[in-house]
From TrEMBL:
It comes from the Eukaryota. Residues 1-13 have a biased composition (Basic and acidic residues). This is Cilia- and flagella-associated protein 45. It comes from Alligator sinensis (Chinese alligator). One of its GO terms (cellular component) is motile cilium.
Length: 93
């Protein structure tokens, strides 16, 4: 009877140790997933800033080209049409 009780206690201790190990693994996995999500979020913010910087640069180039076109003496009615087509907002992605 004492031997059986000792075996049961050993089995219970093994089950507890296994349960704690599984919980630790789950916690580590959740922490890793949270870190990965944070990295993806930061990458998204960085890419968005780069895209905005690129769009601003293109808009500035278009304005510069329009100033150069007006400086050539092209009639204003043509400049307005070109400016409308060049500066109208494009589709948002």
């Amino acid at each position: 009877a004492q031997k059986e009780q000792k075996q049961q206690e050993e089995r219970a201790a093994k089950r507890m140790a296994h349960g704690k190990a599984v919980q630790r693994q789950m916690k580590e996995c959740q922490e890793q997933l949270a870190q990965e999500r944070a990295v993806c979020f930061e990458d998204g913010k960085r890419l968005q800033k780069e895209m905005q910087k690129h769009a601003d640069r293109i808009a500035q180039l278009k304005r510069t080209r329009m100033e150069e076109l007006r400086a050539t003496g092209l009639p204003e009615r043509y400049c307005v049409g070109v400016e409308y087509k060049a500066l109208k907002p494009g589709p948002k992605c």
